[in-house]
Amino acid sequence: MSAPGSDPGLEVFLRHGGRLAAATLAFPNAPGPWLDLSTGINPRPWKGARATPVELARLPDPEAVAALEAAAARAFGVSPDRVAAVPGAEAGLRALPRLLGARSVAVVSPTYGGHAEAWRLAGARVETICADQIAATAAEAVVVVNPNNPDGARRDDIAAGDRWMIVDESFVETAPELSVATRAGGRLIVLRSFGKFYGLAGVRLGFIVAEPGLAARVSAQFGDWPVSAEAIAAGTSAYADAAWRERTFRRLFRDSARLDRMLTAAGFEVLGGTSLFRLTASPDAQSRFARLAEQGVLTRPFPEQPTWLRFGLPKTWPRLAAALEAL
Amino acid sequence: MSAPGSDPGLEVFLRHGGRLAAATLAFPNAPGPWLDLSTGINPRPWKGARATPVELARLPDPEAVAALEAAAARAFGVSPDRVAAVPGAEAGLRALPRLLGARSVAVVSPTYGGHAEAWRLAGARVETICADQIAATAAEAVVVVNPNNPDGARRDDIAAGDRWMIVDESFVETAPELSVATRAGGRLIVLRSFGKFYGLAGVRLGFIVAEPGLAARVSAQFGDWPVSAEAIAAGTSAYADAAWRERTFRRLFRDSARLDRMLTAAGFEVLGGTSLFRLTASPDAQSRFARLAEQGVLTRPFPEQPTWLRFGLPKTWPRLAAALEAL
Hints:
The structure is a homodimer.
Chain A: H1 20-26, E1 35-36, H2 53-57, H3 62-76, E2 83-86, H4 89-100, E3 104-108, H5 114-121, E4 125-129, E5 141-145, E6 164-168, E7 188-193, E8 206-209, H6 212-222, H7 229-239, H8 242-265, E9 269-274, E10 277-281, H9 285-294, E11 297-298, E12 300-301, E13 308-312, H10 318-325
Parallel strand pairs in A: 1-11, 3-4, 3-5, 5-6, 6-7
Antiparallel strand pairs in A: 2-8, 7-8, 9-10, 10-13, 12-13
Helix pairs in contact in A: 3-7, 4-5
């Protein structure tokens, strides 16, 4: 059972972005369709192979899963035996606590809430730490998102050690120089997401990069058909498309700079982010969230940070410009 | 990492059906395309809604996941708070050992090998038992597939009790009177598969039916976006299509009777099965497997049962008829 929000207040929007059904309930007079800036997903998806009806009908062939993992491994710069495809980075990060068996974890915060939730559900003791406390914590595992969501903080000093170090690189395609995927192994585990940079979050595809034995245990946790025919079709082709990746990297950079200029002009302070989302501060952020929503623009507020709003990139600009001018 | 078979011998076909790439390696002279009878998947899939490009690009809205679970719950005859969507029945059954924490399991055998493998990987003690040993076993959990794969054995005496009882109903749409989904709760857990009866195994969609607290824990194990946009589009529509379900139930029954007649005429003894697959015995089954494969017809042999071959339904009949006549 899922737990969709029945309360159309702000609460439902504090957990994750992308809650368009809840937004329609909460803001019934907003002009549609929604301009959804509440997530950090590329609004111009990779457009290529889709699964054929024949592929959707069959069980994915393990050779096709292996080819997907090999294409991803080439893009990550690692050997294929270190890569395990999972049905979304979220499912991957939620499998790790039980697979690793660590009883305590330190999550470098503030960050994406799914990590702490996953470890808590597995019965682990969870502490939140600042980045400069990584060396000092006694936790058996450390989780760091790099570059970080929502503030874009970048770590260039991540080192493998004798405790589990889980590096969530869901947004690293926007800053590929930060990736430690090539060093995954031993107790260093890297998590990668397909849907964000490639703009295909509905496909549900992610990867865990780890030493071969652990990668095999991750694969075994999901079984011989870990991802869908659609994920295989899109992922195998998209990871092989280096030209698209390079072009998109540059376009996102330009677009996020343009977004910064618009947000600054509208009175937001841009605190940081990646080229897939920008984090802002403004004293009246929660009422701005509501006024933007009334105009059909959904952004992302944060619990315990009432001055923050996060903006994803729009596919087109005029509507966002108009909504910001009307603030 | 997946482990595709590099050995093109019989070994690779003993684990699971559907290994067409391995079959092409092992039987390079077989006329293509393969007639794949190695799985129990309906060869005439439900044809309807596919995910739109917009849905593939976005994170699935939790309300859409809830609507899928509600449609499945109506088809199963249970309340939606007992239903958790998972990215394939396989991923569901592999999550259960760690979620339940049982240290020993009895698997009613012979049956689908994934269950024993999943429990072994989670560190549980695994015993295989006959159906009449269910009451006597001391294991903390029992797994029974009903109707059973590969022999079609049917249990109409499944009872909840004070140990975990996991009923894998992956093929129960072919014998809906056997389902105990409406009694799921307490320690009785039911596993359902979308892809087999609906003929869309590449979509990766399954469900766990359990008491609401456990269903919520299963959902939390996979996170807020447990299944793909494609799974949501197909599943939500297909489960609501009672007319298709009824028509397909009858067609599969007719087709499996026709298959039985052909197999019997070709000298196979039909041991049982469901209307999605038929289990046969013949003294020279392994050489028949090879001779059928040389004609491009892939069937399913079994480890430790050298006289068995399992046949799925063909989409069209002439090619199977010719291959059987040439045996």
